[in-house]
Design brief:
By secondary structure, this protein is mainly beta. It has four helices and 52 strands. The strands form 13 sheets. Strands 10, 11, 13, 14 and 15 form a five-stranded antiparallel sheet that branches. This is Fibronectin type III domain-containing protein.
Length: about 625
Amino acid sequence: MKRLSFLFIMMFIISTIFTIFVLDSQVFAEIISNPPPILNASTISSTGIKLNWTYKSSNETGFKIERKVSGGNYSQIDRVDANTKSYTDTGLTADTTYIYRIRAYNDTEDSVYSNEVTETTEGRPAAPTNLTITSSTNTSVNLAWTDKSNNETGFKIERKVSGGSYVQIDMVGANKTTYKDTDIDSGERYAYRIRAYNSAGNSDYSNEATVTTEGKPAAPTNLTVISSTGNSVTLSWKDQSRNETGFKIERKVSGENYKEINSVRTNTTTYEDKTISSGNKYTYRVRAYNAVGESDYSNEVVVIPGSTPGPPTDLQVISFSGNSVTLSWRDQSRSETGFKIERKVPGGSYTQINTVDANVTTYKDTGLVSGKTYIYRVRAYNSAGNSYFTNEVTVISGNIPDAPTNLTVTIASATEVNLTWMDKSDNETGFVIERKTLGDSFNEIATVGTNVTNYKNSGLAANTTYIYRIKAYGSGGSSSYSNEVSITLSDEMVAKSLSKTQGIEMNFLVGQTVYYSNNQLKIMDTAPIVIESRTLLPIKYIVEAMDATVAWNDKEKKATIYFKEKTIELWMNNNTAKVNGVSTLIDPSNTNVKPITLPPGRIMLPLRFVTENMGALVNWNPKSQEIIIIYPAE
């Protein structure tokens, strides 16, 4: 019985050990003992990051994925099944840095964490720069820009027409830096801008670039016949365009239609037609052209080759005196033999008084009778006959006015001067003002009416010397010139002149070397001082501001101030001074007030005595120790 009990016990022990061994083997089999996963990450968009890993294990249930942002804490964002090797994290914020780690797990435990990986989602691209129009025609515009981004998906091109709003017209891929716009109209103004884009959004815009595409050229104007012979006609016109390829010349013979007879290059403004016959009537017109099309036509001109010359124009009187007049006109022909000058008196008939050669445009008629009225006209002539007449001009001969005198010039401002003179005549119509700069000739700048004796000349340049003269004029002609006067608008001259007309205010402080003259900060070498309750200072700073002068006699130890009609003399350490030779006490109420010399030789004069004798006002502020000197405007 005992033996059976022993056998039973042994069998129980063996069975228990076997069960434990089997169970422990299963437990050991569930323990994760491989190395941690090796993790990598890459950005795929502005909202997504892809994870990849490697892991050597066969008993994981799956993987736990954890994430945090910089400065934050990890949190599990997902789980994936066993044998999975990648994971895409979506719904992220653009331009944000994320940190990841993973670990394997099963029913028993989790593995050690993988390495950490850091990745930043894609942000908006940088804006392109330097957008330019590299070329344009009437059918296309070429753009170029600088790509400043390395993460764009591409570029959006926007355009607007003058007066409109921007509209996106196209997109190009990443790294593109040029674009050709072919959907345009000729002669239209366009503005362009671009921006980069990716999944995070659009960049800021580039600069704006504008262009006006080539359109039809403007029509030429002022078509004229500048010469005509029996076998040629020369035309001239004004080019009003900057984009023409050339000009087309059209002609018609009387009773026929226009035909193009030739074309000339861009910027050409003359053409000689040598395919004509004398006596025929020809009409011409011209228009510009380019790749876009043709301009409107110019005006028409009619010519009969071998006919009379074109009439002169703009007849005028350029000078006259008591018994002579000088005429001038504009020559509008190249085929004249000369010009005929005709004259009459009111109520009479025209008489030819002379002729001048071709290309002459002036004539002087002498021997006129004082007080008489004369009327003139001129016409060109050649072998074919006479041109039409010019306009008429009328002259009343008479006594010449006397010349003005005493012309003076003064500065009115930094850019203006005032002229004044004496009117010595009682029969002038007015005065002619003439001006020149050094090295130039006189030119008329203005006229003023009778009895006027002043003129303000504005718009002048600094540091330039101007010279003026004037003359009177009337029905009998022009007087001799006045005297000439000159003036230079230097900064120094302007300042001195304006100080006379606007007055002077100077502010000094006892013990301070800085002072103000008409609100301009200045510095003197010795500060004002107070002796015997009177202010003394280097007087030169005052007298120079008032355009006076000061002289020093070392032998007599005397300072002499010259101001307008006054002479003020002061002696060092002497309480008596002289004003225009008359002796006077410097300060009757304090005989101790006198000029002194401060080392190393600065002469200090009594302020109030000097300035009041020069006509200035002196104010003293005992609280602030300020001296205010006011010299009133003249």
